[in-house]
């Protein structure tokens, strides 16, 4: 019965993709956004195929069927086709090596997700070949963000339908800068979502997302000095999104404080552990629960410990201060130390196979983390993602693969800025800037989290690239039409 349901859903989706490719891709992205891991980790019965992999295959199949029916299909121009071809060549070598060397074939294929979702870069210009289709996607995605916010509000605590609501809302806030909406009610709704989304992001206590959001907004403001075309987005941030978001965040903190005076005193407090017993000679603060149960002297070198007093409230403000103040006084948290040790170990391992890497399927276990007895997925799953997608690329494809990947990232940014500066269509400009900001944001997050290794976050890198490529092709097509009209008029 379960197989029949999957076959029915797959058939319906294939039909939609064949008839309306843009709607199929939009449904695909919205499902990932709303249900995240709960959707992605659904398996087709009796196989290890994830739902996202199945629907991506169906989308590709619908394109192939269209090509067979009405050859030749006029393909869009892909500015990065040759660098991607090199990247796929390296990925094919890594995949082949992995299938021959490592016994866990499913794990080998799963690790190839680092690159195979990049097919979205090529699919999107085919699906969104009209500006109105891109607008429909943007509004659909904003509706998903609104649903996440409504679910959170209805439960009165911070959650979302799936996971990673903080990142999905951050992407939504950035995408909203592309919309030039005339309806005041809709504009108000956008600002409301931005404000509530900012509160969600702050309260979620994921510093990688904080850094990425602040850095992306700062970059948007800095780009306003590059040219007039960037100023509209910068103004949108400066006078709308940022003030509203700050007001919502301050309001939330104030509501979670007993009164206004303690609220401000807690925010600026230097000591995050009020009343805690701590010997400064021991070194940086370290929460006791993160220390090995029976640490040796070597385990504790460079680390101090602190006990939470029973009378201390671990509320929103407390947690916020705990994270922010550690950064201010130069005392890295355990989380930071964990990542630095993990990165050190994977870099050392990567340089044992520097050119082509270990291939897909090699299970990385950080030696330093194991010796310290600290936690991680290595204990449960038998491998550890390094929480840095660039290092994952290096580990699996070597310096050659990493160099090609970094070239694609930098060349895309260069081509997008050139397109923005030369475009004559303001709508295309605003959308291209918004997708460029999403692209930069996802890259920033991927330096601290597991992003490109899975679809629930990684697809947004390839989506942002694909949408900019769509805009380039749409403008080129429009300019050709204008030229044809002009030539016709001259002949007449």
Shape: globular
Spatial gap, N to C terminus = 66 Å
Helix content: 55-70%
Topology pattern, helix = H, strand = E: HHHHHHHHHHHHHHHHHHHH
Estimated share of beta-strand residues: under 5%
Number of strands: 0
How would you name the oligomeric state of the polypeptide chains in this document? single chain
Compute the gyration radius: what is it? 24 Å
Estimated structural class:
mainly alpha
Instruction: Please mark out the parts with pLDDT under 50 across 5 or more consecutive residues, or reply none.
Output: 156-160, 258-332
- Residue-averaged pLDDT, rounded? 76
Counting DSSP H or I runs of 4 or more residues, the number of helices is 20
How would you briefly describe this protein structure?
The protein has 492 residues and is an all-alpha fold. Helices cover 69% and strands 0% of the residues. It has a domain at 1-73.
Structure description:
By secondary structure, this protein is an all-alpha fold. Helix 4 runs antiparallel to helix 18 (389-422). The termini are far apart. The protein is 69% helix and 0% strand. Residues 156-160 and 258-332 have low confidence and may be disordered. The chain has a domain at 1-73.
